[in-house]
Amino acid sequence: MTLTPLFDPTESAPEVYIYNYAGVLQYTYQTAKTQSSPTQNFRLTDLSFTIESNDSYGHATLLIEDNAGVLLDTTLRRRSTIKREWHIKIKMGKNNAGLQTWFNGKIKSTTVIRPGTASQRIQLECVGWGEILKNKITTIKRNQLKTSNGITLDTTDTSTKIYNLIVDMFDDTDHLFDNSITKISTITHTTGAEGICTECTDVSLANVNELGNSFAGFISRVVGAANSEWYVNADRRIVVRDSNNHDSGFLATNNLTGLDAQGWDAGKLMYIKDNSFAWDDSSYDTMYSWIHAFGHFAPSLGVKEETTPNASDNVDDEYISVPFTPLVDNVFKIAFRMTKTGTPATNAIMEIRGDDGSGKPDEKDIRRTIVITKEILQGLGTTTPSPWFEVPISPKLEVTPGEMLHIVFVKYGTASHTYNVNYKSGGHHYHVSSDGITWSTSTGLLNFRVYDAKRLHTSVENTNLSKILTEQREKLLPIRADLEEETVRQALLIAGETLGRERRVYEDVLCTMPEDRIPLTSYMRMQDSLTGLDIKAVIVSYTVEMHAGDNNSNIGASEIKLTLDDVHAV
Questions:
Q1: Cα(465)–Cα(474) distance, rounded to whole angstroms?
Q2: Which long-range contacts (CB under 8 A, 24 or more apart) does 78-82 make?
Q3: Which residue stretches of 255-373 are H helix?
Q4: What is the DSSP letter of 317?
C-alpha cells in the first residue's frame, strides 16, 4: 500500500497551557514528541475536546493525576489551585514545527476525585472561548436611514448591514447595558477566510432594536438572517460565513491509492478508519414548500412636521416638548433631527406623556420612558439641519386615536455639553419648561415624525417543491415584533434556500488525526471506496480523545471523530 507522499500517520501530541486571571502562565504540560526538553507540571492521563459552532462553544475535559496532592491548597477546604474562569489553551502537533492551537477556552469546574488510598485525580471541565459572548449583554439599536419620504430605505446606508452590526458588538460601547462595562478585548475580528465573510453578511436589517440579548444570541439571530454560521476559533477570532460556499481544503478517504489522496495536501488529509459510520437522508424540518412569518410590522408615517429646519434649541436648561395627535391606535417609533454641543457625558431621557387638559404635558401621565445613550449622543453631528434620528418604541405604545400626546425631551447636560433639537423658526409652537411641570410656549416648527405600524403576515413559496409535493409543507418561523416587512421578506427568502432542501447527516466518521487544524463553518470532501460515496459536506463538529491510563506513558491522539451535514436539492 502506498501512502500519500509526506503523509504522517503518527499520533498528534498535546500541549496544555493554563493561565491565571491576569494571563500569567501557571501550569504547562508538554511531551518529548514536540519538545526536546518538555515541561510537565502535572501528569495528564486523559484529554478530550469537541469543537462546535454557533451557540455551542465547544468543550474540553482533562483528567490530571495528583496523587501527591500538589494541586490542592493547604486550607481545610482543600481547594484546587487551578481556578474557575482561568484560561486554558490546548495545542496539538506531530512535531514541534507542526504545533497549532486547537482549543482555547475557560476552565468552568474543577473536580477532585478520590478513587482510593494514595490516589487522587483532578478533573477540569472547560468551555470554548466563544462562551464569553453568551455572558455579555447588548441593547443595540440601529435604524437604516430613510429617503425623503421617511419610509423607503436608503440603500446607501450600510450601518445596518450584518457585517457592521457584528463589528459594532466588539468596537462600539453605545449598546452596552451599563456604561461602566468595558469592550471585549480577547476576541478579535477581521475579514477573509478565517474571519467575517463580507459577501456572506452583505444583508441589511432595516430595524434593529434589542431590549436585552446576549452577544451570542444577537450574532446568531443576524447571522441566521443571512443563512450563515459563526463560531470563535481557537485563535479567539470570530468567524462568520456561509458553510456551503467555503472550502476547508480537507479530504477524508479510505481510497489510499486514489489519485485524489495521492495529490492532496498532506496536512489536510485524513484516512477513514475501518469503523462503522452512518448517514441519514431526512425531511425532518426540511423540504418546506411554504415559509411563513407572523408578528412583524409594516411602519407607516402618520403625524409629522418635516419643514427644513434652520435653528436648534438646546436642552441644557429646559425641558422641550412637542404635541402630537396620533391618527391610529399605536406609536411604533418616532424620529427627530438633533445635533450635539460639546461631548455629552451621560445618557439622556425622552418621554411620551399624556395631556394635562390644557394642551400641556402632564407630569403624572408618563406613557413611555426612552433612554438615549451617551454614545449615541456623542455620535450626533453639529450642523443644522441634521439627519433624521429614529427612536424605536418597543413594545409599540398603544394609544387612543385623536388624543393629544406630548414628546418630551428631558433637561440634560450643561451649556457646553448637551444636545439640541432642530426646528424651523417662525410659525406654530412647541413647549418649554424649567422643571417639567410648568410650561410656556416657544415659537417654531420643531421637526418630528411619528410612525405607526400594522401587524403583518409574510410568506414565500418554493415553487419547485410545490410542483413535486402532493401535499404542501408549511413552516411558521418565529419573528421578532420589531422587524420591518422588507427585512422579514429578505430573511424568509434566505431561510427558504435551506428549508426547501433535503438534509443528510454523517455521524461518527472516525479518521486519522490530521496535521492541520480543521475549521468549522466550511465544507470538506469525503470518499468511501466501499460504497462509492464521494460528497462535499459541511463540518458540523469534531471530537478528539486520548487516554494514557495509569501507566506512565505520554498521551497522544491517533484519531478524530467527525460529524458532517449535507443539505442538497431534492
A1: 11
A2: 78/112, 80/110, 80/112, 80/122, 82/18, 82/26, 82/27, 82/107, 82/110, 82/122, 82/124
A3: 259-262
A4: S
* Phi (first) and psi of residue 223, to 5 degrees: -65, -40
Yes or no: say if 419 and 315 are a contact pair by the CB < 8 Å rule: yes
pLDDT digits (tens, 9 = 90+) for 551-561: 667 899 999 99
Q: How would CATH label the architecture of 296-454?
A: Sandwich (2.60)
Angle at 142 between CA 226 and CA 498, to 5 degrees: 10
For the chain, what are the domain ranges?
A: 13-130, 296-454
Is residue 488 within 8 A of residue 292, CB to CB? The reply is no
Q: How many residues does the chain have?
A: 570
Half-sphere exposure of 355 (CA within 13 A, CB side): 15
Residue with cell string 413559496: 461
pTM of the entire structure? Answer: 0.84
- Per-residue pLDDT reduced to its tens digit, 424-477: 998 778 999 999 999 999 999 999 999 998 877 888 888 888 888 888 888 887
- The domain defined by 13-130 folds into Thrombin, subunit H (2.40.10)
**Grid-cell match 411620551, residue found:** 352
Q: Which residue has the cell 409629522?
A: 304
Instruction: Give the span between the Cα atoms of 518 and 193, in whole angstroms.
Output: 13
260 three-class SS: helix
Instruction: Report how far apart, in Å, the C-alpha atoms of 419 and of each of 349, 372, 376, 383, 388 are.
Output: 11, 11, 11, 12, 14
What's the rounded Cα separation, in Å, for the pair 347 and 413? 10
Q: What's the rounded Cα separation, in Å, for the pair 350 and 371?
A: 6
- Nearest to 305, CA basis, from 451, 447, 149, 146: 447
Cα distance between the two ends of the chain: 39
Query: What is the distance between the alpha carbons of residues 70 and 88, in angstroms, rounded to a whole number?
Result: 19
